[in-house]
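Z., the sequence and structure:
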Amino acid sequence: MQLARGDIFGLVGRNGAGKTTLLKCITGIVLPNSGSIELFGESNPKKLHISRAKIGGIIERPPIDEELSAWDNLKLYAIRMGLSNERIREVLETVDLTRHGDAALKKERVKTFSLGMKQRLGIAIALLGKPELMILDEPLNGLDPEGIMWFRKMVLDLNKQGVSFIISSHLLRELDEVATCYGIMSGGQIIGNVTADKLHKSGETFEDYYKRIVGIN
């Protein structure tokens, strides 16, 4: 699996295919039993933590404390990173949570938020450090149609600013709206790898390509 700067990589596969495990290996949550990982030109396992500082993401669930407010959740991470309140405000605007008002963001506990709002907050936390690579595992879970359209625009806007993405999702048609390349996983291996340009030139949709590769009639 290779990802070039500026790519939006759509990662798909059945449940249990190994997508989340792969993302955990990339981010250092778990260590691979074999093989190698190179991030931003660095492949030395002892130095990968430096490259991982350029990565933001959500894997499995947003890294939030539901007993705290949205603002306090972000503040905890901002303090660790040495970031200002201005940066907190910026990411809240990026994920469109400021429309709920300061009172909700600074006083209401996150456990009262909808699933979609929690997902947005998780993305805000991932964006705090201005990452060069965003890794998002099923980021559309809990988003309503308006939220899905917002997510699509956010990804494309950040991509124009130089942010690369790996997005794991079961929503093939939504991935088709943003992805520049795709990888299909099965049994812990990439069994299909194709660019959006190649698909568009062939006239085949990604959904049809996926069915062909995994053998769905």
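The CA atoms of residues 132 and 163 lie 5 Å apart. The mean pLDDT is 92.

Let me know what you think.
H.
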